[in-house]
Amino acid sequence: MSGLSNSIPDEICEEILERLPVKSLVRFKATCKPWKSLISDPSFVDHHLNRSAARCRKLAIFFEDIGKTENSSNSRSVVHLLDLGYPAKEAKWRRSLNSVVNFFGQNFVVYDICKMVNTVWTRINRIANSEKPTVMEFPSSVPSCIFFRCCTFRGLMMVGSDSADTEFSLCNPSTRQSWNIPNPPNCKFLDAAALGYDFIVKTHKVVIIRQIYFAHSQYEIAVYNVKTSSWTTFTVDIKDDDPTLDFWTYSLTLANGAPHWMTNSISPRIYQIACFDFTENELIRFPIPDTNNDYETYDPHLFEMEERLCIAFFRFCVPFFPFFPYHKVEIWVMMEHGVGESWTRLALSRDQIPAGFDFHRPISFAKDGMVSLVREADSIAIYIGNKKRIEIKSRIHYCLFRMLASPYVESLVSI
């Protein structure tokens, strides 16, 4: 680092660079050889990633863009990166019907996103964010069909589909790099797949889980190590009296680097959470909170809050006239990971969210009062607690299939 500056110590220069966005750092790599060497150093990449994770304010939105592109008349799989730290210039509404939620001692309001989006359709089309969203097309190996196997963690994003002939891809939207992952041996069908992180060996990993159909009581698990570019395959036994791995829902979230899925049996309808621990190569299962079967309209939804696993239960309720329909919601936090007795219900001063014909759900929560909400299937909004206002950040056009969204941390991570 010597020679970078005659007046600023090298340690201060490094401290400043760690706070800059990836877009600036990519440009600075061309400034001089010492800066290129520093910014490419794995230690610097880790420090920058940790800072980015601490102030994460971005959402990755996966969707299908139906219509002609520059090179093709077919649809394409793309991702929008929205920076929630930059307020939109328009679309600020005062609260009307709302639900006041106390989250770790701080009150915030959940808005009727559906009603606002439907009411201000034309105005939303003119919204211009102060920072233009990043749009990235996925590699050509990802088919232009609905894709469910999407997740992000520590700067990397994994995308794929349910097609057995399709390779999964890893990409870094911040640097616009992408890599294909070879399929594991004998993988024709899969029940679940996810990206995660092994904090012991400090590398991203991918897990693919499939049931062995001629042996109903076994699952085959394949783990891909990004650092060594190799697969490890093994089988796990399922207890005969545990039917909850019969059906894997698409409610996927990552907490502490481990992917979590909501699983359930078809009949009787019993839910469990399945978690894969990359450090031990172990499939772990634990129960969901006991809600006395009061929430049966929708499947429970998983998300994470500052590395803690959360679960949301919903039920659509239609009261007698003249009252409006509403969603009854209940949110729980697992205070100690893997311990069913540690589920803690958030204190709700009013547990009804006004509902339109569409359904909206939370993506993530933060203790500073910023809440990310997604309306299925075409709008993203946030509630800023300290300013007590809602901002509709994006509307996705021509999205005929389900839209997926998750928090995203930008990074310099490469493979």
Automatic annotation (TrEMBL):
SMART domains: FBOX. Residues 2-52 form the F-box domain. NCBIfam families: F_box_assoc_1. This is F-box domain-containing protein.
